[in-house]
Design brief:
about 400 residues, alpha/beta, Rossmann fold, 2 domains, six-stranded parallel β-sheet, globular, binds adenosine monophosphate
Length: about 400
């Protein structure tokens, strides 16, 4: 594996792709800086060698009109604090000003570029755009494991312009090594906990997991598509009506493979999608009209916890409820606690994905599970055995 460990950055300008897609509150304060902290060792190694660093990242999914919300300018101060130096900021990731700023960097300098996704060329994997980014530095370092499953301009295509001088950062290399360890030694019962907003983004993951695990716990917004697919009443909860048939297919595939799918018996419901809404608990398939399922209920928490605590291998991705609102974090927290207990009981417990990682950090228990990955989609695809474009691009020369 080509990593930064064996490279001397003295006098080099390294363009480092990081994943600074961190959650911000309404005042643009960073609410969880784990992704930024995770990239610090890579940046520090380059600076210590006597190189300079051009940091690039995406944040969120900016569209016309909401660019301010997704500006990487909000990161500058905090990054400066963590690196103990002033950070230069280019308010356009390409173009003459960015090029001139990159050109004038001297050893020890750090330049942060504005959000790559302000250009649609980024997600399209546009070659010209990648070439422009590549022109800013003379070494390419990929430390954005969280974006490795996407063939975007800055994660994959850019590597074409560095025949030899391309490598994995510290975080990326650690992720690959740690996850490899997990998949090569699976103990049973092996269970997966999958939450988050939508079924549509997790179909492949679910189908693949069915081939590997003994039990799957499903929570979060996506559970309501499954409950509706089985004839349940879900009120005004999040649902993907186009995926009811898919949900039924997943359930019958699991049955055929003897994999137990566990849906929450009860839910915490609210009369409005708000932290201050009126709430009550009811059976997950009897949600009255006008009410929204926001979190898993107490019965479900106990049921899920007992399954997790008896497992020997646990993989968790996605929150059980709307964890951005403090009134609906308890279900997700109960999963964290069960994961911690399982770890104490000798299980290997792995957590990945922005919201689940934030939840585990919020309760201060990240060091009490076996492994916390910065990847969500990337982690799941890698575990499925898929080749990640971001990995392939570095390996090929
Ligand atoms: P994902 O990115 O797919 O892992 O989904 C994370 C998102 O799922 C978070 O923003 C949560 O607020 C959201 N979510 C979890 N539970 C629910 C729910 N019951 N209704 C609506 N959204 C939910």
């Amino acid at each position: 594996m080509k990593t930064i460990k064996d490279f001397d950055f003295k006098g080099k300008k390294a363009i480092v792709r990081v994943d600074f897609n961190v959650p911000l509150d309404g005042n643009f304060n960073i609410t969880d800086d784990s992704r930024i902290k995770a990239a610090i060792p890579t940046i520090e190694k380059i600076l210590k060698d006597g190189g300079s660093v051009i940091v690039m990242s995406h944040m969120g999914r900016p569209k016309e009109g909401n660019k301010e919300k997704y500006s990487l300018r909000h990161i500058v101060k905090h990054l400066g604090k963590l690196l103990n130096r002033e950070i230069k900021f280019a308010d356009d990731c390409i173009g003459d000003p960015a090029f001139e700023m990159a050109k004038s960097l001297t050893p020890g300098d750090v330049l942060l570029l504005e959000n790559l996704r302000y250009y649609k060329e980024e997600t399209k994997g546009d070659r010209d755009f990648a070439k422009k980014l590549a022109s800013l530095g003379d070494v390419f370092v990929n430390d954005a494991f969280g974006a490795a499953h996407r063939a975007h301009a800055s994660t994959t295509i850019i590597a074409e312009f560095f025949s030899k001088n391309k490598m994995f950062g510290n975080l990326f290399a650690n992720e690959l090594e740690s996850i490899k360890k997990v998949i090569s030694d699976i103990k049973r019962p092996y269970i997966a906990i999958i939450g988050g907003a939508k079924v549509s983004t997790k179909i492949d993951v679910l189908n693949n997991l069915i081939n590997k695990v003994d039990d799957i716990i499903i929570g979060g917004g996506m559970m309501f598509t499954f409950i509706k697919a089985q004839g349940g009443k879900i009120g005004n909860s999040l649902v993907e009506d186009d995926y009811l048939e898919t949900a039924r297919e997943i359930l019958s595939y699991a049955k055929a493979k003897n994999v137990n799918i566990h849906l929450p018996a009860d839910s915490v419901i609210a009369d409005d999608f708000s932290n201050h809404a009126k709430t009550k608990t009811c059976s997950s398939d009897q949600i009255p009209d006008g009410w929204i399922g926001m979190d898993i209920g107490e019965k479900a928490r106990q049921h899920f916890s007992s399954i997790i605590e008896n497992a020997k291998n646990v993989l968790w991705n996605g929150p059980m409820g709307v964890t951005e609102m403090s009134s609906f974090v308890a279900g997700t927290e109960s999963i964290v606690k069960a994961m911690v207990k399982a770890t104490k009981n000798g299980a290997f417990t792995l957590v990945g994905g922005g919201d689940s990682v934030s939840a585990i950090n919020q309760v201060g228990m990240a060091d009490k599970v076996s492994y916390v990955s910065t990847g969500g989609g990337a982690l799941l695809e890698y575990m499925e055995g898929k080749e990640l474009p971001g990995v392939k691009a570095i390996m090929e020369s």
